[in-house]
Predict the 3D structure of the following.
Amino acid sequence: MPEGLRAPTDAPADASVQERAIGIAILAMGGEGGGVLADWLVAMAEAHGYHAQSTSVPGVAQRTGATIYYVEIFPHAAAAGREPVLAMMPIPGEVDVVIASELMEAARAVQRGLVTPDLTTLIASSHRVYSMTERTAMGDGRLDSQGLLTLCRQAARRLVIADMRQLAEAHASVLSASLFGGLAGAGVLPFSRAQFEQAITQGGVGVKPSLAAFAAGFDAAQTLPAQSPDPITPEAHDIIAEGIRRLTDYQDAAYAEAYRTRLAPLHGTGDLLTETARYLALWMSFEDPIRVADLKIRATRFQRVEAEVKLAPGQILRIREFMHPRLQEIAETLPGFLGRALLSSAVLRGIAGHLTRKGRIIETTSITGFLTLWCVASLRRWRPTTLRYAAEHAAIDQWMLRILALAPTNPSLALEVAHLQRLVKGYSDTHVRGRRNFDTLMAHLPTLEARDDGPQTLVRLRDAALADDTGLTLTVALAKEGLA
Amino acid sequence: MAERSFKTEVQQLRLGEGAEFRGEGILAVTKALLQSGVAYVGGYQGAPISHLMDVLADAQEIMDDLGVHFESSASEAAAAAMLAASVNYPLRGAVAWKSTVGTNVASDALANLASGGVIGGALVIVGEDYGEGSSIMQERTHAFAMKSQMWLLDPRPNLPSIVQAVEHGFALSEASSTPVMLEMRVRACHVYGRFTARDNRKPAFGVRDAMMAPRRDTSRIVLPPASFQHEHEKVRDRWPAAVAYIRDHGLNEIFADGSKDVGIILQGGMYNQVIRALQRAGLSDAFGKVSIPLYVMNVTYPLVDDELVAFCVTKRAVLMVEEGQPEFLEQALHTILRRADVQTRVHGKDMLPMAGEYTAAVMHAGISAFLQRHLPAHAPAIPVATPAAAAPMPEIHGRPPSFCTGCPERPIFTALKLVERELGAHHISADIGCHLFSILPPFNLGNTTMGYGLGWAGAAALNDKTSQRRTISFMGDGGFWHNGLTSGVGNAVFNKSDNVLVVVDNGYSAATGGQDILSSGAANANRSTGNKIERAVRGVGVNWVRTIEHTYSVGKMAAVLREALTTKTLGPKVIVASSECQLNRQRRVKPLIRDAIRQGRRVVRERFGVDPDSCTGDHSCIRLSGCPSLSIAPNPDKLRRDPVAAVDNSCVGCGVCGEVSHAAILCPSFYRAEIISNPTGWDRLRHRLSQAVIHFLQRRMAHA
């Protein structure tokens, strides 16, 4: 018996008496090489004494949609010259192996009934390719990966899971190669490792990197990692420490000290302290043009971009920023008197408005571009005199006052008020919209305070504010709560 | 050039007697055409038969050797009309398209063809796009066969059966003077299998022979009084001739008759799934050796009444396995048995669902119900696979298709979304093609789609001159040349429309696999390309035409849309939004870039990125783009929870992200990275100088 050969089911391993096809379903997205994987399987099976058939329904799914390939193989020895009738689509209860290119696709295979606990080995990549719904959410719309994983674990006879995409990328290859390795490493098909590798070699495209990714997938399947530990919930002091680090970096040590002082009255309030510490730090480090310029010109940022674009030795990297500061933002970033002058003078407004009508592209890797941003970043020490600073801190004061006032009497409402800061994010219109929603909800606090379900109502309203960017859901929700 | 090259597959078309052909079902059809001595072939691409068209396009040399004329038809109607060559001449001709949409378009020609009849074999290969993966309305081609009296083949889905069906299809057509349709389901088109080839046959009588010796027969032309005669000929002569051929050549198959007093009648295309269900019930082995009688209809129209009566008369009950609705076959079976006074119980849609694809689970349930009712002792119910009794199913999102990475059509809809923010919502009439993905998130644009090339016609009624708001219609370049130039543009000119059409011109019939069309930019040795859409539009009388050569300029795109929607100029307004399909572009330029880098030439690769520390996780950019390479990633910031936007390395640097963040004034997190391979001396000098200054300042900052 060649290495890695095992009987596909509980049926006798002797191929001559096996009267059943081996079914392998591949769930992938367009462009992930599901078809290549199916071709390798067919070539391998045919080269080593099996009938093979594959089918697919590519259609428009080729354009990034989810699709399925199905392969059935049947040993010549058992067929004895007869033609087996192979299925055109996977049959729930008869699928020996499901290969899924991604975690949600693995769960989809389970949902479709293709994975059965008595038979199916599920080989999946643990990475996520987020759906449009997850990506377009205004906050965090991601599905619970742990739930998907648990489902796969429960449904399959055996689950072989690893980050196959990462393994492929590490060897400059494609997902299909590492998944094929995972399949070989799982040892569920009656073929040896050498026979798998032969299929790749004979395929003739990108053989060397494919074999390397195959080997990585093979090893991953044979040495399955222990279950990842649950993420540790950070304690208040971790968050406060991070906040202090952030604000020192943002402004200076005194600014960070002010942050620490503001939190002092909340000590001993548990979650309320943690969450207020989190959002206060974020708010106090509001993203003004000074901050953005400061972040853009750092050496660490240059290194991060180099890594992200996989810069090779001998190549040169140029980075161009897409900036579109508006008149309002420029005025707010200037020292107060200048900013007010700019906003109140029609002539100045006209000139500046004309200059800011179009976005600018600044090359940070050029001397002039870098110096431009460096100058903006250098305004940091004057930040406390800007209009923006004054406006943000006025709002922060109001917000903190409400939290502190509510903390002793209605701590759960105070906690939700702390969470409200999440609405204020982004730049320009996005920021204005978020801030408007924030103000709307803050204005309803007195009413909510009087209601027993005040905290829950506020959560519903916050979710409504994050449901769409037209404000429609929030308007409807407010009316429903009788707050319109 | 099409999306996929079939240069290697094409070699299989040369295989001779006894050699083994390996490949997809639809390629086997192509080989079978050549083995049958076909004289001319045409068709219109579309899944699942695009590969047939692509293979033939790549096989020009072989076709030339055999004297076979091949056309990429302008539409299915054009393809169907081609078959007119078989009316007067003993020419075997075949055409192919996606059905039922293509058959809808072809119906006019098909009805005329079927009325007069043919003397050369005429075969219509329809890719039945039904069930999983289908992109069209769920209908049956069967109805077309019935209404025009064309014969419909539905072979068992294995390559030898499919090849035989092609060969018999021509002979059946000639024996009954009737065009024949070969129905290929999606999975049968893509099934990989094998068959033993035969030699290709050069047509004994070729297209050239017909042109050199024209013949006519007025009685074959659809005009009174001949047209009245045709109807009688159909039922008096052609139908019986077809039934005789089908019976004499045993086109329908019977397995294990007499073994039980119940049986199953099925469409050929359902065979494999039925066998697998019976195998589970212990009534078949893995090779289709059944112990319950099967009558397999490899021809589903016309039916052979005597065969059905003979099969049923010895049985208590039969199950009709017929996918799709309405249940034409079951109704016909009832009529046939009633006329013969046979009392066999007929089951069908009472045990199997009326609508929807017959998946494995559906087939199991239906056959199981039949067996339980009529063979409970012999066959226990088919055990249904039980999924693990797990916790409640977590939420799983659908993954519909969408615009590819770097697609030039995306910025058109981004621009429209931005314009609608200013001018309000408009009625948007969509068409068929990749651009129809606009109806899905994140764009959510588009009200209706009425068919290929019918985008503008779909908004024709909304043409009130007093309206303060115009309608916007979309049409791809594929749909434009298919019929949109006349049904949309000509119609709008003639009826003095004041509305707006956007022609999405990406240089290919992209959604069907990147085939060339009249306005394609690429030079094509066998076709005339480079015919500008703007010229055609002006030619039929549109005066307000704007061509945008770079759709990625979201600002420019938005400006031209705004102008079209608000201009005081009356009359139809057409915007030609023109940028090459990125999928095809990448396929074209990637090898060139690789070679250039290898040869030491300076190459700049561009891609976008997002700075996670200034991204606040609102995802506005994704809602305006939806590019697959623009996704989300866990926030590296310990304080933030919402995921950040992130661009992966598949980004092709199309520029839309930057354009969007400028046009929509989004956020400063986007950057464009330009990676210069093989930099010149000037590049290196400039780099060293700026690095010196930048490093100096960065060190100072670090110590500040």
In short: Chain A touches chain B through 129 residues (CB under 8 Å). Residues 390-480 of chain A form one domain. The CA atoms of residues 4 and 274 of chain A lie 52 Å apart. Chain A is about 55% helix and 10% strand.
